[in-house]
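Example 3.2
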Amino acid sequence: MTDLSRLVAEAASKSGLLWVEVPGDRAWPVWHVWVNNTAYVVSGPGEQPLPDLPDEVVLVLRSKDHEGRLLRVPAHTRRLSPEDADLDDEWGTATQALKASRLNAPPGDTVARWAHDNVVMALSPHGDALEEPGHYDDASGAAAPVPTPATTATWRPWHARGRPRVRRRRRRRA
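Structure, written as tokens:
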């Protein structure tokens, strides 16, 4: 396989959504911002759910054209903290980009809330792609549904004298 850093950057910057495959868990959809060849994500209370990430994960990037899987690449993960701000201030760069991209943010200082209550992660792709155009796995990639306490209602509405005859067998023609 070849190093596809330009394709990774193109796919990640064009799409605001990617999946993070956590070993031993499922793939988690997350919104992100792409800055300096790194995907930054925020999770926790009031933000998107995401489990604690190990040092290595797999990113699944989608195609903006057909919204299907385009690439699977390994990535290093790093937790960012305002206290660990180094000389280039990665925390400030990441949080300002995330804040600009965040839709429907609750009132108040978003960055201060993230520093206190949430987790900001840097996901840095590295190495060769696990799957790329022309070299996809033959498996379906389908995953089992996420367990949920929600159930399907058993009651269905009853219509007096049935559905109107006009609507019973009528199909719309395109």
